[in-house]
Design brief:
The protein is an alpha+beta fold. The protein has helices at about 5-25, 115-120, and strands at about 40-45, 50-60, 60-65, 70-75, 80.
Length: about 140
């Protein structure tokens, strides 16, 4: 009759769940809540950011916003609360090095254990393999 330990199996299962949680959440970050009446930008179905106003929080991370006279429900990830002025210059790009879709003071560290950051401390390895063009290009001059 095979012998097994429930303690070891439970510990392995917990370790596996923790590993999966770490990989799933590695790109996540904490977004601050938006207040009612705050001037925001909301992502439209076409992917552009439209000026809007937050009306109220409907559920956790879900808000009703007023976009061009229409009330829409948006997730927090589709809401950008600009840290600068409420009416930014239309010529200024929404994304780029000067701005971010998430306020810098509201972005917390990712909801990850500290052990995840230890893995990223290793330098990036590069291959030392010789790179050659494919044989089918041997008589073709690349310039």
């Amino acid at each position: 009759m095979p012998e097994f330990s429930l303690d070891n199996d439970a510990a392995e299962l917990c370790a596996q769940k923790e590993r999966q949680r770490r990989y799933f959440n590695r790109g996540k970050r904490v977004l601050c809540p938006v207040k009612a009446g705050e001037a925001i930008r909301a992502r439209s179905p076409t992917g552009t950011w439209k000026p809007a106003e937050c009306l109220r929080e409907v559920a956790p991370r879900s808000y009703e916003v007023l976009v061009h006279g229409a009330v829409r429900r948006r997730s927090r990830k589709d809401i950008w609360a600009p840290a600068a002025s409420p009416d930014p210059d239309p010529e200024t790009p929404l994304f780029g090095p000067a701005s971010s879709p998430v306020e810098a003071d509201c972005v917390g560290e990712p909801a990850l254990p500290s052990s995840v950051h230890e893995d990223s401390a290793q330098p990036l390895r590069r291959s030392t393999r010789e790179r050659r063009p494919p044989e089918r290009f041997k008589d073709f001059i690349l310039s």
